[in-house]
Amino acid sequence: MNFCIVDSGTYVLWITTPRRVIVEAGALGRVSLAGGAHLYVGSARRTMAARVVRHLSRCAGVPQTLRARSLARLGVAAPAAKKVRWHIDHLLEHPAARVHRVSLLPGAHCECDLVQALRDAGAVVAAPGFGASDCRRRCGAHLLRMPRGTLRQARVVVSAAGEVRELV
Asked: Are 24 and 59 contacting, i.e. CB atoms less than 8 angstroms apart?
């Protein structure tokens, strides 16, 4: 299936870190994130495919494993160079961070609603303000930590948000 028609919408990066990681996250400063499962909820008004591929790239070192398959499925060229721009870039640059799934919700602009639904399902703010510097609804963060036993419910919540296309 070709995903190149995905132009705008909301996306979820399913991230794992095997242990606690500490990242310098721009204006947030030094952020400590517990090991385990995390979800980053983002959106793109245009070129969502390019945004996701960018997230799967790294400035240095080995790109995220999902990247090669995603390039083909999204029909997007690899970025020539990546600058660390968003909070999530700082986490994804850490060698322990692995993106193992991406959920795309094309055309859906429900980033804050999805964050709230995931929190209602047991997700907790991973670090105050992380990924939410431009959030008008004051979600607290768009990076959520999923306590043990909550990932199944998170999949249900994401699936209920609209038409979902998965990159695994």
From this structure: no
